[in-house]
Amino acid sequence: MTIEKAIEVNGLSKSFGTVKALDKVSFDVQRGETFGLIGPDGAGKTTLFKILVTLLDTDEGTATVDGLDIGRDYRAIRARVGYMPGRFSLYSDLTIEENMEFFANLFGVSVEQNYDLVAPIYSQIEPFKKRRAGRLSGGMKQKLALSCALIHKPSVLFLDEPTTGVDAVSRSEFWDMLHNLKKQGLSILVSTPYMDEASRCDRIALCNSGKILDIDTPSNMVKKFDGNLYGIKSKEMYSLLKALRGDKTIINSYTAGEFHHLLADNGFDAERLKQELTSSGHKDVEIKPIVPLIEDVFIKLLSNER
Amino acid sequence: MTGFTSFVKKETLHILRDPRTMLIALLMPVVQILLFGFAISTEVNNINVAVVVPHWSESVRQSVEKLSSNPYITYQGAIEQGEIDQYMRSGKCDAVVVFSNDFDKVLSEWKQNGTGENAMQFVMDASNTNLAQLGSGYLTNILAVDQMSSDMMPEIHMLFNPQMKSSFNFVPGIMGMIFILICGILTSVSIVREKETGTMDVLLVSPVRPLRIILAKMIPYFALSCINLTSILLLAHYVLEVPMSGNLGAIIVISLVYIALALALGLLVSTIAKKQVVALLISAAIMLMPIVFLSGIIFPVENMPDVIKPISAIIPARWYIDAMRKLMIQGIGFVGVLKDFIILCVMTIAIIGIALKNFKDKI
Q: What is the CATH number of domain A5-222?
């Protein structure tokens, strides 16, 4: 019997004192899917990971990983998942090679046995295998951690903010690696605070303060966006933002790189705004409609929530 | 390689890669044994003694001669009665022997009748009570014993440690402390370090049972302790000349039980503490302090107030130190320390039980 779903989460809740880290979270991850949990710090991503890899108990709700119950079958789950925590959690005083060997042996396999699976990643750091893990760069540490989490051929891979604190090039490389792993049939649950990484996932869940706001494919998320989104810029970006916040036809406005993004209601008239701004002393005002990004979706969902 | 052996290897590498910790772990026992054995001793040497002699007679001269030739005493010469205070205050002497004016006459009275006036007076600097007490004892032995009728004085035999070497007393005490320090503190800190750096999370998400993780952690520290046990026993016997007249096998067996107990204590602490600093503090508070103050290393259990005595009874080191003293110095066989041995075994099992009950394989 093959189990359809790699992960199934039903109404998970977890509180730490009065803080609700998770509030009735439900979602599922299909076999072979790369599922992204996207949300800012404090959204409850790490707590969710710890519950799913059976390090933490839930207060409420059930979940299965690879068809196994996280409460009853936690030992079996531990033996078959790969877990890469958000913080670098390997032994800094051991070399790359020693770390790899240790984690392979921990799962009762040898490095050679599953070398094929990790080869595309591990081969990049193998030339430095005698170097201690503590002396590696952020990107190399991340590759080593991923190799260690993969060496026992896990059925489900849990990656908690793998790209946090890593440079842009390494981040992109990392997602390429995940893409290759997915092609080998691995189910991956990955979390990230970077909205721009969402498009690299098959499906994403946008989450904030313990709740899931929406679950869909990244492209559907953007398609579903029903609002007038504009980009606006001028010489004085800061005072521009203040001026935008005073306009009644604008629902929300926020900085987003070169342009400010503004979400407007149906009474919004770009020409009128441009004239108003120019007459109140703003120079080189430029307004254009834009295609929303995941970030815009997230901000809109967030303001709906409030 | 199985999970378990690779664990032991990893743990050993941690210790080897941290030369400072290893140096401390291996050198501390040696330094402590030598320090307590030689430098820190409760024996008193070089007591500065001056004399006040109102009338030099032949017997006085003989007494002073005996004083100045004694190796424990540094003779500071004769001073005037009025200078005693000044000499004491300036620290030039620790004791002054004041001979009576008619020393010869008093002495002969003593010899005839067995009673009489005081022939001499000892003035001691009691700001250091230990020195004053021992010093007056020395002076009595040197001066009074054969001057007075010798049959009046008790004859004292010091059994087991005839020279009253304090190092004999310290060796078991240091052993009681060292093993707790190395096994208890180092293991608890090393387990808690894994929690703190997050590696424990990764270890737990694996097929290896948490208990095995802990057990594997203990093995290298156990080995380290065995090295220490060997070096302490060798040093104690060959350098400090502790007799080790008892059953050597019993010394080793009881020490191994005690090491196991210390490891269990370390595990117990690690189940409570979440940060290395906390582990250290708890270790110091529940392990080190009671050992120093309540186990009888420094303050004899017999002298403790009745309220404190039961507390000292729950401190494992007390029983271990007691057993080691009996075995090393008194030289009695295993039967003589059976009680200590059983108490230690029961304590070890109890602590392991509590630690395991406390141990969680979640966070």
A: 3.40.50.300
